[in-house]
Amino acid sequence: MNRKTLLTLLLPTLTLLLTGCATTGRLTIHFAKPLISGSIEALYEESDPAFGESAMASQLKLLEGMLKSAPNDKELLITACQGFTGYAMLFVEPTDPERAKEFYTRAKGYGLRALGKEWSSGKAVKYDDFEQSVKGLQTSDLAAAYWTGMAWAGWVNLSRSDPMASAQFPRVKKLMEWVNSEDSTYFHAGPLWFFGVYYSTLPPILGGNPKLSERYFNSAEAVTGGKFLWGKLLFAKTYAVSQLDRELFNRLISEATSIPAAEPPELRLLNRVAANEARRLLQQADELF
Predict the structure, then answer these.
(1) Using CA atoms, how far apart are residues 91 and 82, in angstroms rounded to an integer?
(2) Which residues contact 33 (CB under 8 A, 6 or more apart)?
C-alpha cells in the first residue's frame, strides 16, 4: 500500500482524533507528521493535475485540523503556508484571481505565525520595524520567509488596483532579498524566479529593470537545468511579453509544454500544471503581442 492510499484511509480517523481532547490531538500530530511529510512528497510526484488538486485540498484541511490542536507548531505552519500558496498559484489564480487572493491571505497568515510573535502581531509589517525584523531572521527561518514572501507577493500582485496593497511590495522585496542571500537555489531556485518576475513586471519608474530580470531568469534556468517548466512559463508570460519578444515567448512556451527527459520525480505535478497553463497562454499569444 503506497503512502497516498494510506493517507486517504487514515484521513477520517485522523480528523476524528484531532477534534478530540488536546492530549490525544497532540499525540496524533506527533505520529501523523511523518505521514504528512510523505504525502506532500507523493503529491509533488503526482502526474495527474486534477487528482493532485483534489488531494492537495484534502491535505490542507487536514493540516488546518492539526493546527487547531497545535497552533504554534512551526513545521505545520510552514507546511500550511506552502500548501495554500501553491494551491492558489497552481489551481486557483489562472481562473479565479479573487478567490486566489483569499488563499494567499490565508497562507501569509500561517507564514507570519511561523516566523514568530513579532511578525504575527503586526509589528513587523510596519515599515519602520520591518528591516530590523528581517535582519533578525535566522537560517532556520528560510522556508517560512520564502513561502510568506511568495504568498504576500501573490496577494499584492492580484491587488494592484489598490494603492495600499501595492505599497507593501517593498516589504515583500526586502524579505525575498534576505531569502535570496541565504539560499538562491531554495525550492528550484525560487528566489531567482521571483526576482526575474519582479524586475520584469514593474515599470522602470518603480524599479523595473528588464536587463536585471533577464539575468535572474537565466540564472534560475542554469540552476534548474531547464527542467523546471513553471519557471519557463513565468519567463515567457512576464519578461518575453513585457519586452514584446515573441520569438523568445514561442521558444519558452514550446519548452514549457515538453516534459523534459529524466524529469525529477518531485517536479511531475508542477511541470504538468505548467504545461497545461502554457498551452492556454499560447492561445492568447495574438492578444499579448
Answers:
(1) 14
(2) 75, 76
Q: Structure pTM?
A: 0.88
Measured distance CA(95)–CA(63) in Å, rounded: 25
Give the amino acid at 74.
K
C-alpha 17/C-alpha 20 separation (Å) is 5
Q: Do you know the residue count of the chain?
A: 289
Give helix 268-282 / helix 246-256 axis angle, nearest 10°.
140
Task: Classify domain 3-216 by CATH number.
Answer: 1.25.40.920
Place of cell 497568515: 109
| All residues at 6 or more sequence positions from 201 whose CB lies less than 8 Å from its CB, including other chains | 157, 208, 238, 242
What are the tens digits of pLDDT across the range 229-254? 999 999 999 999 999 999 999 999 99
Query: Mind listing the pLDDT tens digit for each residue in 90-137?
Result: 999 999 999 999 999 999 999 999 999 888 877 666 677 899 999 999
Contacts of 50 (CB under 8 A, 6+ apart): none
* 70 three-state secondary structure: coil
Displacement of CA 71 from its chain's centroid (Å): 21
Contact at 8 Å (CB) between 14 and 28?
A: yes
Task: Calculate the CA dihedral of residues 284, 286, 288, 289 and round it to 10 degrees.
Answer: 160
Domain spans, the chain: 3-216
| Other C-beta atoms lying within 10 Å of the C-beta of residue 212 | 15
For residue 102, the tally of other CB atoms under 10 A from its CB is 14
Question: How many whole angstroms separate alpha carbon 168 and alpha carbon 164?
Answer: 7
Confidence band, pLDDT 50/70/90 cuts, at residue 9: very low
